[in-house]
Design brief:
By secondary structure, the chain is mainly alpha-helical. It is built from 16 helices and 6 strands. It has a two-stranded antiparallel sheet. The chain has a two-stranded antiparallel sheet with strand order 3-4. Strands 5-6 form a two-stranded antiparallel sheet. The N terminus is likely disordered.
Length: 390
């Protein structure tokens, strides 16, 4: 009944607007023989009346949240986005129920010009006025947070803590087990992640602009969203054509990330590992052994130097942990770090090569590698760098 009354009020108002405009037009024609642009100047108010009437009709909806889920949702306004586009995405994400009402409210309050590019934390339980205010420029101070490639989850937590104040324990807890109890698990690319796996490998390394006040959920959500944007469908399909799930692609990319220094070599190193996998060889990747060994209390390092004497072994194959690719054939159980886009692309599009071996190029000492097809060539490279062939 209340809705019907408001509709009647709206129609009456529209009728009044028509009468006002019609009368003004007739008066203009009588006095000047026509209607000029200047004559229309004072008649902007009828449009304001129409919007005000529309807002009054939908007053109840303005104060009604889109849902009851109070989980924080990271919402990014991209540079160049219009208020219409922002409103439509808010509705698609379930943060408002009526994009048109949201847009009209911005217009009515003069807030549409205040929306600028940025990252905001919203909730379903927020009303349209609350969301409109939250998206206003200058109301959410930002901070720049940089996360480097090649870090394992615990190191990512350390960097995030140092730059945001988020406790490392909170970040680690969310990224290891807690994420499964949130909407973070809804991403399609996480479908191939084993039931007991963490988000290791999917915490996309990037420089982020985040709200000044930010929680672990906000950071992880932004990282996963960035992974989804950067790792394209084409890349995932290319990896699938080579027999890798997204999880396996990220796992292999994380090894490439820890091995490669020069971007041009990443596809070649990926090609070497594909050759080993396809021929049933051990991957023989030092970084997987380092990951399995974990934190070194003596040096305070996660990635310890693999000295046989210090490890008490005569070969790396003696170290028994599931990540030891000198001992177990195939990929390790999961990613060993957060690979950058270049390493993921290298696995999606590996170089077609006959190489099976590589070692650090001691001659150039610039992070490059010496590649070899045969064992003999490999040992020749090895001895040229001062090593002793078996």
């Amino acid at each position: 009944m209340k809705k019907a009354v408001r509709v009647v009020v709206f129609l009456v108002a529209m009728g009044a607007v028509a009468v006002i405009v019609g009368g003004a037009v007739r008066m203009a024609r009588q006095t000047s023989g026509g209607l000029s642009a200047c004559d229309l100047g004072p008649l902007g108010s009828p449009g304001d009346v129409a919007i005000e009437t529309y807002i009054q009709i939908h007053a109840d909806e303005l104060e009604r949240p889109a849902g009851s889920d109070d989980t924080p949702v990271t919402f990014v306004v991209e540079s160049g986005e219009t208020a219409v586009e922002v409103a439509e995405r808010l509705q698609t994400m379930g943060l408002v129920t009526d994009a048109e009402l949201f847009r009209r409210y911005l217009q009515y309050e003069g807030l549409d010009a205040g929306i600028e590019a940025g990252t905001f934390t919203l909730r379903q339980t927020m009303t349209i006025p609350e969301i409109a205010r939250a998206l206003q420029s200058g109301q959410r101070p930002e901070r720049v947070v940089a996360v480097r490639e090649g870090l394992r989850l615990e190191q990512v937590a350390e960097e995030i803590a140092a730059q945001t104040g988020i406790p490392e324990a909170d970040f680690v807890a969310l990224a290891t087990t807690g994420w499964r109890d949130t909407d973070l698990a809804d991403h399609d690319f996480l479908a191939s992640v084993p039931a007991t796996a963490t988000l290791e490998g999917f915490l996309f390394p990037e420089t982020y602009r985040l709200p000044e006040e930010v929680a672990a959920y906000d950071v992880v959500a932004r990282m996963l969203m960035t992974f989804d944007e950067r790792v394209t469908t084409e890349m995932r399909l290319s990896a699938a054509n080579q027999g890798l799930s997204v999880y396996e692609m990220v796992t292999l990319a994380s090894i490439v990330e820890r091995e490669a220094v020069i971007d041009e070599e990443r596809p070649i190193i990926a090609g070497v590992y594909f050759n080993r996998l396809r021929n049933g060889w051990l991957l023989g990747a030092d970084p997987t052994v380092q990951y399995g060994l974990g934190y070194d209390e003596e040096t305070g390092q996660w990635w310890r130097t693999l000295y046989f004497d210090a490890l008490g072994v005569s070969s790396l194959a003696e170290i028994d942990n599931p990540y030891n690719t000198y001992r177990y054939v195939g990929l390790p159980p999961g990613p060993i770090c957060s690979p950058g886009l270049a390493s993921i692309q290298a696995v999606a599009y590996p170089a077609d090569t006959d190489y099976f071996y590589f070692i650090a190029n001691c001659h150039a000492n610039d992070g490059s590698h010496l590649f070899a097809v045969t064992e003999e060539e490999h040992y020749a490279n090895f001895t040229s760098c001062g090593g002793e062939a078996p």
